[in-house]
Amino acid sequence: MFDFIKHQRKSKARQLELDANAPQTGDEAPDFELKDVNGENSVRLSDYQGRKPVALIFGSFT
Amino acid sequence: MWAEYSDRVEFLIIYIREAHPKDGWWLGKGLPGLMLKLSKSKAATDVYDPKAVEERRAVAKDCETALKYGIRTYVDEMDDRVNEAYAAWPTRLYLVGADGKVEYAGGLGPFGYKPKELGEAIEKYLVREGT
Hints:
The structure holds two protein chains of two kinds.
Chain A: H1 2-19, E1 33-36, E2 43-44, E3 54-59
Chain B: H1 2-5, E1 10-15, H2 30-38, H3 53-67, E2 73-75, H4 81-85, E3 92-96, E4 102-105, H5 115-129
Parallel strand pairs in B: 1-2
Antiparallel strand pairs in B: 3-4
């Protein structure tokens, strides 16, 4: 129970700290390059610039 | 949404640090566990926080397989750089225009995670751009 509360508080505090600097509408989207689930086939956000918009869906299995 | 717009919008799943790993803020037991079961949530409750990118990719692959969402999944590195740049944890939605600027910045999940808003932002963007 106390571990639960400890993790919850730590996670939420970190989340709020980062959220203060989250990109807002009109901001330049931070560029990135990542690999897929097999560690292959990189994607770079800026590769889509001038081509099409990109919907970013962030999450995890848990 | 993907089915409707994928010809005009690129959808990318960015797999980030686990929201509720078994060795962290775990929701797999007690009242939270019961609520997850009752809600028939597809969230995993038996995943430990990956310690290496290969582990994170393996969990991401399991997620992709289990949920069958059909959208390409890319995995954040263990420094959580992309996650932090977008303040994305535990879950968040963005729309980036073809000019590289943020068109829609969703709220922090879970309560700020609103796919309907993303859909509306996409529609508004496409109408404005005439595509």
